[in-house]
Amino acid sequence: MPASKTSKQQLRKQLRHKRNSLTSGQQHQAALGLQRIISAQPAWIRSQHIAVYIANDGEIDPMPLVKQAWKEGKTVYLPVLEPLQSGKLLFLPWRPDTVLVNNRYGIPEPTLRRPYRFRYRPRPAWALDLVLLPLTGFDSSGKRMGMGGGFYDRTFAFMKNANAINKPFLAGLAHECQRVSRIPTDSWDIPLSAIYSDLNVYP
Ligand SMILES: Nc1nc2c(c(=O)[nH]1)N(C=O)[C@@H](CNc1ccc(C(=O)N[C@@H](CCC(=O)O)C(=O)O)cc1)CN2
Ligand SMILES: Nc1ncnc2c1ncn2[C@@H]1O[C@H](COP(=O)(O)OP(=O)(O)OP(=O)(O)O)[C@@H](O)[C@H]1O
């Protein structure tokens, strides 16, 4: 049976409120804490193609890591809502000079221009090395909750039967204050490889 829709929605609302209440000073410290933790992880060090996001709605901000990745010559990608209403995400390269336009949720994303020139070509989800995805909530066993759109769940549903070589390392990012004792789970939830907060690594 699906996890009660209302209990998940209520918890999401509470946790979104919590992260939106952080001050800009707390947000800044959290972003630096996150950078310190992630940049020491083997999964970061060995990854060349890394998907991130632009922080929105109080999400923990991966920007310090993005700048570090650019300096280290890694290629960074942003999620773009697939236009054909598949409910999936495409991953487009994000460089310091990439033009961004707000999507329907008000989140900046690169624009899709067909035919794709090499510099603007989406990278298939299976060919990413590391995916840093935003969480609204998590628990210490590594269960996650997102914004409720199911975008990451649909995009990475292939992970359930893919070979090891076609599996990116999926890491959820959140503020430590978004941890709860137990996240309700549903059959479609994609398991994460790890969760990184400003203070810890889970599970
Ligand atoms: N920074 C960031 N980028 C992202 C995501 C994200 O969660 N964070 N996404 C992750 O999927 C995708 C966009 N999906 C989103 C889905 C819903 C809402 C949202 O704000 N929805 C409603 C609330 C819905 C509800 O409570 O059920 C809203 O407008 O308030 C935002 C983004 C791709 N890019
Ligand atoms: N593989 C899938 N195929 C079709 N629908 C899916 C799939 N995965 C999830 N969904 C749908 O998307 C919605 C996702 O709800 P859920 O509350 O689990 O989102 P979430 O995990 O918070 O979102 P996100 O994955 O964007 O972070 C559900 O209504 C579910 O039916």
What does this structure look like?
α4 links the parallel β1 and β2. The chain has 203 residues and is an alpha/beta fold. The chain has a seven-stranded mixed beta sheet. 24% of the residues lie in helices and 20% in strands. It has a single domain, classed as Rossmann fold (3-Layer(aba) Sandwich). The mean pLDDT is 94. The radius of gyration is 16 Å and the shape is globular. Adenosine-5'-triphosphate (ATP) binds at residues 8, 145-154, 157, 186, 188-189. It comes from Parendozoicomonas haliclonae.
Topology summary:
Elements: H1 5-20, H2 24-38, H3 42-45, E1 49-51, H4 63-71, E2 75-81, E3 89-93, E4 100-102, E5 108-110, E6 130-134, E7 137-138, E8 144-145, H5 151-155, E9 169-173, E10 194-196, E11 201-202
Parallel strand pairs: 1-2, 1-6, 6-9, 9-10
Antiparallel strand pairs: 2-3, 4-5, 7-8, 10-11
The protein binds ligand FFO and adenosine-5'-triphosphate.
Question: Can you say what the CATH homologous superfamily is?
Answer: NagB/RpiA/CoA transferase-like
Could you state the order of secondary-structure elements as H and E?
HHHEHEEEEEEEHEEE
Q: Give the overall pLDDT as a whole number.
A: 94
Structural class: alpha/beta
Provide the low-confidence segments as ranges: none
Largest sheet: 7 strands, mixed
Number of domains in the coordinates? 1
Proportion in β-strands: 15-25%
Count of β-strands = 11
User: Quaternary state, please?
Assistant: single chain
State the name of the first-level CATH class.
Alpha Beta
Shape type: globular
Give the strand order of the largest sheet, numbering strands 1, 2, ... along the chain: 3-2-1-6-9-10-11
CATH architectural group: 3-Layer(aba) Sandwich
Report the total helices.
Answer: 5
Cofactor: Mg(2+)
Biased composition (Basic residues): 10-20
Catalytic activity: (6S)-5-formyl-5,6,7,8-tetrahydrofolate + ATP = (6R)-5,10-methenyltetrahydrofolate + ADP + phosphate
EC number: 6.3.3.2
